[in-house]
Design a protein that fits this description.
CATH superfamily: DsrEFH-like
Helix content: 25-40%
Number of helices: 6
Order of helices and strands: EHEHHHEHEHE
Distance between the termini: 32 Å
CATH class: Alpha Beta
Number of domains: 1
Radius of gyration: 17 Å
CATH architecture: 3-Layer(aba) Sandwich
């Protein structure tokens, strides 16, 4: 067995929410891992599946209610149009720094070797089919299968 010096060898990222900020956080972390030579896999579960659902992935929103980083009162965040405004502002700022859109980012992740997995339980629960999902998905697996892929020294799991 080779000596282990504590370095990160693999990042296993679990994405359970498809708000714009959560999806991009997971994608940036996975992409950053690959740029550092670290293996990366993303497990999309529950509402995180929206990030790989072909009809929904380009229509993600920024959360304005219950998001303390928005620095607006919850009551204001819930007003009609606030979420659309926040989403529009976020997308404009992302365009300024040449951040790819969700579909293009998925292609970048796949090209760099990131594995993309959909949660079987959530797929069944939401009545999604493989055909509904991003075409280059690595598969639909159980949480147990995902944990099995995360074995080994230097593997870290991150819940986003």
């Amino acid at each position: 067995m080779s000596e282990f010096n504590g370095e990160i060898r693999k990042m296993m990222i679990i994405l359970s929410k498809a708000t714009l900020e959560n999806v991009y956080a997971a994608f940036v972390l996975a992409n950053g891992a690959r740029m550092e030579g670290i293996e990366a896999e993303i497990f999309f579960t529950f509402f995180g599946l929206e990030a790989i659902h072909t009809e929904r992935l380009e229509h993600l929103h920024t959360s304005t209610v219950g998001n303390p980083a928005m620095h607006i009162p919850t009551l204001l965040g819930g007003l009609p149009g606030m979420e659309a405004l926040a989403t529009s502002m976020m997308k404009k700022e992302m365009e300024k720094i040449d951040m790819p859109d969700v579909h293009e980012f998925l292609e970048i992740l796949k090209a760099s070797g990131v594995k993309l997995w959909a949660c079987k339980l959530a797929m069944d629960m939401f009545h999604f089919k493989k055909e509904d999902m991003y075409e280059d998905l690595d598969g639909i697996i159980t949480v147990g299968d995902f944990y099995g892929k995360g074995t080994g020294l230097g593997t870290h799991m991150l819940f986003v």
